[in-house]
Amino acid sequence: MSYRIIGDSCMDLTPSMECDKETFSTVPLTLEVDDLHIKDDETFDQASFLELIAKSKKGPCTACPSPNDFLRAYECDADDVYVVTITGKLSGTYNAACIARDMYYEQHGHDKNIAVINSLSGCAGETRMGLYLKDLCDKKLPFKEIAELAEQKAADLKTFFVLQNMETLRKTGRLSGTAARFATLLNIKPILFADKGEIKKFDTARSIEKALKKMCDICVDQAKAVAKGPMRAAIVHCNCPERAESVKSYLSGIADFTSIDIAAARGVSTIYASDGGIVVAI
After folding, report:
1. What's the predicted TM-score (pTM) here?
2. I want to staple 13 with a disulfide (CB 3.0 to 4.6 A). Which of 8, 17, 56, 258 is the partner?
C-alpha cells in the first residue's frame, strides 16, 4: 500500500524530508504581519520575514488553511494518507483537515484511508511526528494500527523550546511589556513546553546556554519516562544552525538516540520560536 504524510506548514522539514517528495508534502498556513499576507510555502523568505516582524508594532499572526486546501492535498495517488497538524489549541488547522477528510469521502467514497492527527504540539513536534509515521509505514503495519500508534505518540511527545528573543511574545500579548523588559535586563531565558496542546512556561535560566542545557535535561528525563523503545529527537532552529548543532551534541552526550534530526524553521515556527530560538521534540 502506498502512503503519503501531509503536514501543515508548521511541520518543519529536514533536508531528507524535503527531498522525499513522494512521502512528504505540506499545506501552508498564511502569515500576517500588519497588512501583509504571506503564504508559508517554498517561497517563504525568513530573513525578510524577521525584518517585517521587527518593524511591526503589533506583531505577526497566522491564518489556517481552508478545508479545500487540504482536500486538494488528499487527492493524491497514495492509498493511505496521514495528516499531522499543529495543536488545535493554537489554530483551526486540525478542524479544517478533518472537514476536508469528510469532504473527500463524500466526493470520492472510501477509496483511500485518511487519518488526521492533532500533534498537540507544533514545530519540532510535528517534524518528529512525521518521521515517526514514516518509520511505522516503512514497517508495513496496517493503517489502523499506525493511526492509533500516532495518536498515542502525540500524547506522549515531549516538546520544549527556548527563546533568545521575547519581542514577538510581547507584541502578540503572550508576555507583558514589563515582564519582557525585566527578563531582557536580567538575561533571563524562558524554557517553554507544549502541555496537552497549550504553550506554558516550565522554567527559566540565566543565559541562553544554560537555558538550552536545562531544556535538554528536562526533555530527556520526561521522554525516558514514557519511552517504549529507542529514542529519536528532532531539533528546529530559527536562524541559528550552529546553536542547533550545539544542542544536538549536548543531547548525544546525555542519552542514546537512534538519530537526532535538524530542520530550519519555516514561517509559523519562526513566529513561535523567534529569531535565535531552539525547539526540541523527543
Report:
1. 0.93
2. 17
